[in-house]
Design a protein that fits this description.
Number of domains: 1
Radius of gyration: 21 Å
CATH class: Mainly Alpha
Helix content: over 70%
Shape: globular
Strand content: under 5%
Organism: Algimonas ampicilliniresistens
CATH superfamily: Amino acid/polyamine transporter I
Number of strands: 0
Distance between the termini: 36 Å
Pfam family, one: AA_permease_2
CATH architecture: Up-down Bundle
Keywords: Membrane, Transmembrane, Transmembrane helix
Largest sheet: none
Protein name: Amino acid permease
Membrane topology: Multi-pass membrane protein
Length: about 425
């Protein structure tokens, strides 16, 4: 007999999906062009505001359209099955598989940094692949094992982050002389192209606030529990993100972090010294395991929904005796393994972040369409301050996407190609179905 996921498990999935590589790695890229601590905190505050507005919008979408699958379900029902298919195609190829690869690569980099002899590039790749495969084996078995392990991993993650932040606030031997108050010139930084590009990394770090909508069909009474899950998970992560960046900037010189990936390890050395930094860096590496776990759990549900709706891909919908989509789990993990072997960390972040933002942009626009199509629906949750809340999310997200297109046209072209290939697959699958 299958077991529904509990609300606390769904909240844990959101928290673990969001708190991954982005918050522990992106500061180094942001500091290449932004030197203001106030502007850095504003990046994360604006990102948190966008995520909260998105979560509120998805809470209404999820109660109106309560089925697992996330954007695949929303876009397919609101616009056209082709839109849903392309969204699911993005989730399959980029949405979860690429971030899993990025987190696994960051895990291997953190592990290499804390080992006295380090790890060769080949060994780092092997370690990342081992993490991906082990999480696939864990989540391809049963919901009870999946949900219980995810809740435990996330609880450990939040506890360790809070302990790290308290240490960074109170026991740093030589805190950096930084001020988080605005100063002259900060206004121009907040409106600069560099700030907009940095928001791409921030939006990637906040990616995952919508993760519970991928398993909403496996929740008990999702129309009442889903809004609370989305909002509480997003608020918790936003608070932790801002607190972490206060600690990072107090613990280590900005010059030491500029352009670096292992930000958490660098800050840990500033707090605990070299030996203690290795231990704390090891704990930060362990935190990334829960992120790989959460994405391995949530992502295959979109693939499962595609398999249920498209006969040509029905093999993706096959489940084991506990109704776990084993084939979808294994397929997504195989794609993630491919990214681990072939792609760089920064390439994955920019490409995946922009495509996921575009996906959620269409979904939130769909809320306006749904309100016009079904204005009098009796649903348990409506977005407060509508239409201001979804418009805030759309404005911030569109702002970052415009700068991606303007400053990284190759990335935009690659995204367009991926979407086009998805449309071709949709047309082929429909033709095979009619045949």
């Amino acid at each position: 007999m299958s077991v529904n996921f509990r609300p606390r498990t769904a909240t844990a999935i959101i928290v673990a999906n969001m708190i991954g590589t982005g918050v522990f790695t992106s500061l180094g890229f942001q500091l290449l062009d932004i030197g203001s601590p106030f502007a850095i905190l504003m990046l994360w505050a604006i990102g948190g505001l966008a995520a909260l507005c998105g979560a509120l919008s998805y809470a209404e979408l999820g109660t109106r359209l309560p089925r697992s699958g996330g954007e695949y379900n929303f876009l397919g029902k609101i616009y056209h099955p082709a839109a849903g298919f392309v969204s699911g195609w993005i989730s399959a190829t980029i949405g979860f598989a690429a971030p899993i690869a990025a987190v696994a690569l960051a895990f291997s980099k953190y592990t290499a940094a804390i080992l006295p002899s380090g790890l060769s590039p080949t060994a780092q790749t092997g370690l990342a692949l081992a993490l991906v495969l082990s999480m696939a084996g864990l989540h391809a078995r049963s919901r009870r094992l999946s949900g219980g392990s995810q809740t435990a991993l996330t609880a450990v993650k939040v506890g360790l982050i809070l302990a790290f932040c308290l240490a960074g606030l109170f026991i740093v031997p030589d805190p950096q002389p930084v001020s988080f108050l605005p100063k002259a010139g900060d206004a121009s930084v907040l409106t600069s192209p560099a700030f907009a590009i940095a928001l791409i990394y921030v939006s990637y770090a906040y990616t995952g606030w919508n993760a519970a909508t991928y398993i909403s069909g496996e929740l008990k009474d999702p129309q009442h529990s889903l809004p609370r899950i989305l909002i509480s998970g997003t608020l918790l992560v936003a608070g932790l993100y801002i607190l972490l960046h206060v600690v990072f900037l107090r613990a280590a010189p900005m010059d030491a972090m500029r352009g670096q990936v292992e930000i958490g390890y660098i800050a840990a050395r500033g707090i605990f010294g070299d030996d203690g930094g290795r231990i704390a860096g090891g704990m930060l590496a362990l935190l990334l395991i829960s992120s790989v776990s959460a994405m391995t759990l949530a992502g295959p549900r979109a693939l499962q929904a595609i398999g249920e709706d498209f006969p040509a891909l029905r093999w993706l919908s096959r489940t084991n005796k506990d109704q776990v989509p084993r084939n979808a789990v294994l397929f997504q993990s195989a794609v993630a393994g491919f990214f681990v072997i072939t792609q760089s960390f920064e390439t994955i972040i920019v490409f995946a972040g922009s495509l996921l933002a575009f996906n959620s942009l269409l979904a939130v626009i769909g809320l306006f369409v749904l309100r016009r199509q079904q204005p009098d629906d009796d649903i348990p949750f409506r977005v407060p301050l509508y239409p201001i809340v979804p418009l805030i999310y759309l404005t911030i997200t569109a702002f970052t996407l415009v700068f991606v297109v303007a400053t990284k046209p190759v990335t935009a072209l690659a995204a367009a190609i991926l979407i086009s290939v998805g449309l071709v697959f949709y047309a082929v699958s429909r033709r095979l179905e009619r045949a």
